[in-house]
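[agent] plan:
  1. take the single chain provided in the ticket
  2. run structure prediction with default settings
  3. attach structure tokens to the ticket
  4. add a short note for the reviewer (M.T.)
[agent] executing step 1
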Amino acid sequence: MTGRRELWEVARFSAPRRGFQPQCDCYRTDDPPALHLVLELPGVDPADVRIIAVGTTLVVSGVRERPHSPAARYHQVEIEYGPFEREIELAEDVDADEATATYEAGMLRLEVPLPR
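[agent] step 2 finished; step 3 output follows
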């Protein structure tokens, strides 16, 4: 069959898996002066998330567990699971002690005030 590629020849399926890596948006506001971060963490138990600020680096880590089904026989596996650690370089110094976090519908939202 010319023009047809086998599934395993497609880069997405032949490349080594790297594990779950949450996507992140980061933006700044002036009133109040703060950095805001939004991370996609679907399927992650908020109790398993750790947030650490070191200088201008924010580290978000945790684990996304694969749902267990003892009788399951997988036919397709695309969703990444397992431990993750995401380092985010912040554009400016922050007041990490005053940071707040909320988690809703798989989205982690952080507000990190900027020093005045």
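[agent] step 4 note for reviewer: The mean pLDDT is 87.
[agent] ticket updated
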